């Protein structure tokens, strides 16, 4: 076609036929490029836009918010211009070399941007799946973007200086120590992200507690170099990603996934209020639905044991008797088993700890069946509200240090 055009220009005595032919070819390339641009952007991309718009919102947002198809179209246009320049422009023409050089740069840059858009699209899709939410994909994708950017930069430099990229790669090997120093944090973050992902140590949405960095809240984002945590006071803490590998942290995901949150709190009983139950107290406590069976069975067992030993019950130190604190412990055990917000398949225990100067600790150890913070605190408060209210029914008192009102009462009584 070049030869025919040149012959036609020579036949009509067109001045400077070489430059005129080149200009005609450039105009033809421009016209074809514009037509392809209209066909792709006003045709194919719009059709895909309308098809995905009628589909789920996630598809439409993921595919078009990141301009994936637009960048693909521009990349294809660059390839078309490069091919046209090779077909229609003279081989030894400076214009051809310039056009092909510019289109090579165009293709490499748009390929890089298309790859970025593709990774961002995958990241948007991953948010809709449980596996994607559990993996630190943002950090991994940022590492891939960094590696791709370095590769494309080397290829661009090799094109512009007209040297083989192998030479640049060999020189890059000599600068390994410098590169490791410059990209230390991204490299450590990439390795940490892979370890976090492989070992399922952390994911977006997990409750992370790391006192060393003042972090206590939900993980909002995991990037190549940092982990962003929104604390419960709505402040934001950023932690180096590699610190999650080198230091220890607490992930509360196991508690959330188990469906039970631990209640572990002790109330301290005044030791002077502990005594054997009297007949009057036993009669009153028998009316309690949760205690009636326990008391009847326990009294029968104690009576049989005392009769077998021939115990002289005229002295309180002889034989076995029911105590108010033991009966109270049995009541709490039965109460936990019937509580609608205590997890029935997890450990339930009421245990007595070692007494000290602050009384006799009686610890409640159980798990609520709600793991949300507000619900959990409400369940725990309701549980101990009932315990504090029912405590006097067993003749027990809470231990607490004397206050100003106690001292005033003592002074008043002493008068």
Multimer state: single chain
Percentage of residues in helical conformation: 55-70%
- Helix count equals 17
- Principal-axes geometry comes out as elongated
Major beta sheet, strand line-up: 4-3-2-1-5
Cα separation of the termini: 125 Å
Structure description:
- This protein has helices at 2-11, 17-53, 57-64, 68-88, 94-126, 130-134, 137-161, 165-174, 176-182, 184-198, 243-246, 253-258, 279-285, 289-309, 324-338, 373-390, 404-414, and strands at residues 207-210, 215-222, 226-231, 236-240, 250-251, 261-269, 349-352, 360-368.
- With 415 residues, it is an alpha+beta fold.
- Among the domains are: 2-128, no CATH class; 261-275 and 323-406, Alpha-Beta Plaits, CATH 3.30.70.
- A five-stranded antiparallel beta sheet has the order 4-3-2-1-5.
- Strand 1 and strand 2 (215-222) form a beta hairpin.
- Helix 1 (2-11) packs across helix 2 (17-53), helix 3 (57-64) runs antiparallel to helix 5 (94-126) and helix 4 (68-88) packs antiparallel against helix 5 (94-126).
- The termini are far apart.
- Residues 185-253 form the Mechanosensitive ion channel MscS domain.
- Its main location: membrane.
- The chain crosses the membrane at residues 20-40, 68-89, 101-123, 144-161, 167-183.
